[in-house]
Amino acid sequence: MMLHLLRVAAIAITVVGICWLHGLSATPTQTPSPTATPLPTSPPWVRWYKNPDALSITLSTDKLTYKMGDDVLLKIKETNTSSDPIQFNPLRACVDYDIYISHSTSLMKPLPLGMRNNCGFYVSGRPYFFVIAPQATITEPGGRGEYTSISDWGLKISDPGKYYIIAISVYIQQHPLSQKYSDNVQLSNVAEITVAP
After folding, report:
1. Domain that holds residue 65
2. What is the pTM (predicted TM-score) of this model?
C-alpha cells in the first residue's frame, strides 16, 4: 500500500508538470458505439493487466467552458491499440479510474474508492468481462450514461480559471481479506477546461 501511495504521489507531480509545461487541451468528440463482444468460451485473448500498454485511455469533458456551479462531466474511453483481443472488465469510471485536477498551484485529489458517490462495483446490463477487438474502442460506464460527474470522485471546482484534468487507471486485485492496488497504472491525455465566474 505504501508503494502505491508513493507511486500516486509521483504521478500527481507528473500531472502538475504536464499541465503547466504543455497546456494540452481536449476537444469533446462524438463517441462511437461501443465495440465489444461478450467473453468467448475459449481464451484467445490477452488479459489487460498482463499488457496494460495495449489500452489507450482518452479523457474528454462534455464542454470546454463552464460557469461557476456547472456540473463538470467526464467521459473515459479505452482503445485496444494492439493486434490482439484484450480481455477487460469496465466496472464504472469512478471505480476504474482516479481523477486529478490541477488549478494554479493546487492539485485536487479524489476521495478513496469506498467514499466516492455512485461507485458500486456492479453495473447492470453489462457482462462481467468484455473482449475488446484490436483497434476497437469502448466507453467506460458512467454515473450518467457515458458521463460521470467529478463530484462522484468527491471533487468540486470552487474558483474560476483554467483547470487541467487527468485520469489514472486503477487495477484492483480482489483478495479475500484485502484489496491490493497493482502497479499497472496508466495516464490518460490531459483535458483542459475553463470555468468562468
Report:
1. 2-196
2. 0.71
